[in-house]
TrEMBL record:
This is Formyltetrahydrofolate deformylase. Its EC number is 3.5.1.10. GO terms for biological process: 'de novo' IMP biosynthetic process; one-carbon metabolic process. Pathway: Purine metabolism; IMP biosynthesis via de novo pathway; formate from 10-formyl-5,6,7,8-tetrahydrofolate: step 1/1. It is an enzyme of class 3 (hydrolase). It comes from the Bacteria. HAMAP family: PurU (MF_01927). GO terms for molecular function: formyltetrahydrofolate deformylase activity. SUPFAM superfamilies: ACT-like, Formyltransferase. The active site is at 230. Belongs to the PurU family. Catalyzes the hydrolysis of 10-formyltetrahydrofolate (formyl-FH4) to formate and tetrahydrofolate (FH4). The gene is purU. It comes from Pseudomonas caspiana.
Length: 285
């Protein structure tokens, strides 16, 4: 479900206590706000409550006053909230290596406004995809990787992220493992796409591994990065049935399609404020 362009987004989470839904919805009613979409989830195992509401503001809406009032109302519940204005478009940096299918898909979805974001830079350890970025009039930064001095390369990457004001980093088949330091800086702000339903078929030639195992499903996993390789909180997964007639090149072709779609879905969830971190898991509303 895509977000309406004229609505605000209110997201909040707090411990599971009586009256949390009422605290949010009653406040919106008292402020004259019209709710257009509402989802909530109470995790009985972690004892935490999550809510996401889209609403239209009344005439004369006072954002600062709204925030102050909700802060006061939510104190009794230990509530943490975030308010996102209409037409919000986060600045995004995309990191790539040589494969172009995910980058091409993301840039196309941005161009037709299916993904409401502004890609402000493409960063790569190879020069191959510069023409694609240039066609979209997006700055391209080629930072070759010296295996003996990885921190120097990552410092340049981080400089681009900081100076561009990017709120989200997308690893669109960036085939390098990020250092613990960069993972820490990008915690909850970087999405990676992996070529399988994690965990499985790690390392080189994953689709050849899958072929040799005679798999009947191929898929992709989009997740937030962390310092545990390919084990960050999962946002979205995609899957497709295959059989004995699919050779490695067929699996690769299907994998490209699934990777692009799954990554786009995860990015959409993130920029529409639908994803909540819940320990090592996510809640997607």
């Amino acid at each position: 479900m895509s977000r309406a362009p004229d609505t605000w987004i209110l997201t909040a989470d707090c411990p599971s206590v009586l009256g949390t839904v009422d605290a949010v919805t009653r406040y919106l009613f008292e402020q004259g706000c019209y709710v257009t979409e509402h989802h909530s989830f109470d995790d009985r195992l972690s004892g935490r409550f999550f809510i996401r509401v889209e609403f239209r503001q009344p005439d004369g809406f006072d954002e600062q006053g709204f925030r102050a009032g909700l802060t006061e109302r939510g104190e009794a519940f230990g509530m943490i909230f975030e308010l996102t204005a209409p037409n919000y478009r986060p600045k995004v940096v995309i990191m790539v290596s040589k494969a172009d299918h995910c980058l091409n898909d993301l840039l196309y979805r941005q161009r037709i406004n299916q993904l409401s974001m502004d890609v402000v830079a493409v960063v790569s350890n190879h020069p191959d995809l510069e023409p694609l970025a240039r066609w979209h009039e997006i700055p391209y930064y080629h930072f070759p990787l010296d295996p003996n001095d990885k921190p120097a390369q990552e410092s340049k990457v981080w400089q681009v992220i900081e100076e561009s004001g990017a709120e989200l980093v997308i690893l669109a088949r960036y085939m390098q493992v990020l250092s613990p330091d960069l993972c820490r800086k990008l915690d909850g702000k970087a999405i990676n796409i992996h070529h399988s339903l994690l965990p499985g078929f790690k390392g080189a030639k994953p689709y050849h591994q899958a072929y040799n195992k005679g798999v009947k499903l191929v898929g992709a996993t989009a997740h937030y990065i962390n310092n545990d390789l390919d084990e960050g909180p999962i946002i979205a997964q995609g899957v497709e049935v295959v059989d004995h007639s699919h050779y490695p090149e067929d699996l690769i072709a299907k994998g490209r399609d699934i990777e692009g779609l799954t990554l786009a879905r995860a990015v959409g969830y993130h920029i529409e404020r639908r994803v909540f971190l819940n320990a090592n898991r996510t809640v997607v509303l």
